[in-house]
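yo

u said u wanted the structure for the complex thing, so here. seqs first:
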Amino acid sequence: MKRAFAILLAASALAGEASAQEAAPTVKEDFKPSSLNQPGQEYPQVNSQGYVRFRIPAPEARNVKVSLGLGGRGGTVLAKADDGTWTGTTAGPLDEGFHYYRLTVDGGTFNDPGTLNFYGSTRWESGIEIPAHDAEFYALRAVPHGNVQQVLFPSPSTGTQRRAFVYTPPNYEKNAGARFPVLYLQHGWGEDETAWANQGHANLIMDNLIAAGKSRPFIIVMTYGMTNDIRPGSPGGLASFDIRPFQTVLMDELIPFIDREFRTLADPRHRAMAGLSMGGFETKLIAPTRLDKFAYIGLFSGGTFSLDDVDKVAGYRDKVKLTFVSFGSRELENGGMVGPPGMQKADPRANAEALKRAGLNSVFYVSPNTGHEFLTWRRSLREFAPLLFRD
Amino acid sequence: MKRAFAILLAASALAGEASAQEAAPTVKEDFKPSSLNQPGQEYPQVNSQGYVRFRIPAPEARNVKVSLGLGGRGGTVLAKADDGTWTGTTAGPLDEGFHYYRLTVDGGTFNDPGTLNFYGSTRWESGIEIPAHDAEFYALRAVPHGNVQQVLFPSPSTGTQRRAFVYTPPNYEKNAGARFPVLYLQHGWGEDETAWANQGHANLIMDNLIAAGKSRPFIIVMTYGMTNDIRPGSPGGLASFDIRPFQTVLMDELIPFIDREFRTLADPRHRAMAGLSMGGFETKLIAPTRLDKFAYIGLFSGGTFSLDDVDKVAGYRDKVKLTFVSFGSRELENGGMVGPPGMQKADPRANAEALKRAGLNSVFYVSPNTGHEFLTWRRSLREFAPLLFRD
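structre next:
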């Protein structure tokens, strides 16, 4: 009786969500385990439409919820089966690409034991991958691979040894005389130095671009942007953020370390900085003030450069060889205006076009059918990398 | 009333365990967050005696248990407080070093959201560190650091690109002409290629040994030993294990890749193989059959070499420069006899001494007050590395 009631309740909740829009399409029963599951784990599963099905053993639990729901939001309430597992399917499909999520089991936050873990929202979260139609560009393929190196660099300003991950391109070791340009690539709020490799597949994206001859080989440096002490989304948050601790680590400690320890081309024509979300915010705060170091700038869902911004920086027009700004299409659904909570909104496309009309190398890229999420940023890197270090 | 009853129940359970031995010592209230907690997480905590205190928010749960208990076994049942958190302290101290663990929340297996994750027992587990009196040898210190490189190598035998982690010693990049010996270092059953760096701190152990001039700098290669498809501890398990798939990957694919991609000294005098637990079992199956490749062999809680074993291998006495066998002291509490379940027991100390009397370079090391756990193996690496590649 209890079980029938629980199922009825769950079913009506799902039906309620579906009837709030047009009649829901039939869910295709072609579910496969997510590519981000732990070895041997059958669940969670994804179907060809992007629906996600969960299965969590917790025989004595009172309630189990998943944070992913319709379009990735709203959550999915699971129902308990006779065998003690809690199951359910999202009410609608999720966008292509990577999504963080977590479980709430009897009011406590836990991860889905079926998935690998990914650092975001200041915790190691569960993650799911909805296969994208263009997934080949970040697939693990039979091409020469670069290495992702964990380095520990001394940081007197923070009194410790700090960690960075350094992507060295294929054949870096063997081309013992060659020197390479460097991209400093930052993560977003709540993430850390593992994000671009783990969630972003930056190394595989570069391996594939280089194998296809679409990008010049270069080094990528990924360190923690010291982003996570501010409160997310709060109006005071970003405005109160002090860039100086991270700027000191980056400019005074990490860049000199990288130039000492790796075979880099250590001049601004061969150094880029980019970041996603708050990492873009940091890039915009740092790079234009250090045009003696950087000539390529990228903001991925992380701000925009107006002509005013450019004119405030002496030498910007002459020295910056690329101003790249990107967003996911869903982020531009508010009349094309973007901006962090509590801060002024701007029109990034209009800004990019103004820079272009003013004669700057300004590139604006929109990732189709994705939001403020990692597929937007994988695609942004795919678009950005081929433009770097060409002149 | 309910809460008082629950606390009484938990207290009597703890008291019951304590009175089963001599009167329990006073638990010192000097608990500190474990060094393996996620950033910002206060719990779990460890005190100076090695007791562990847990705190898990799950306000509607019926029961929450932790797999760590007295001496690391038996589990700890947590009690619910008014604020909806489940708390408890282990009934006794745990051994120094690293311990895997998991939660059971209402019958479901979940990780403690307070800790980082570590791959063991074929899942990403929670982990806790009991500070060891000799922890300095694996501490992150202000010395030159090597890099831990993720490499992807082609494996036709398994139809994919496989992953290995490669430790390159400090200044590997800058000593552009220098070539280095290589240690192939395997993990145990249930673990994977992340174990030696994540749980083992192999890179920090080597950084510190090299900085102190105690070890020659060398490269360490850590890949997945293809161990996890057999059932743990079952009598048929190890006996039914087929070494050939992994042997093919190691000998035909990984070693040639490493010799191509890194500046190695590619001869047996400069190549070692060692492993922990099932990784030692694999080492014993492979290395003696390939003395054209390896001259140094190490088994960490992973078997023993008898004089019979040695005499069965043509050329062993002449070609093998070091036979290193180690165990944790607690593993030798059964009259000094060891052996996998269902297989013949042996006396590793007696065996090591027999090899020594026969004129081989035979080293036997026992880690004090540790069992079949990672501090035994960190210490084993610390003892083994300085003996390598000296002749």
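The longest strand of chain B covers residues 147-155. Chain B has a mean pLDDT of 93.
cya
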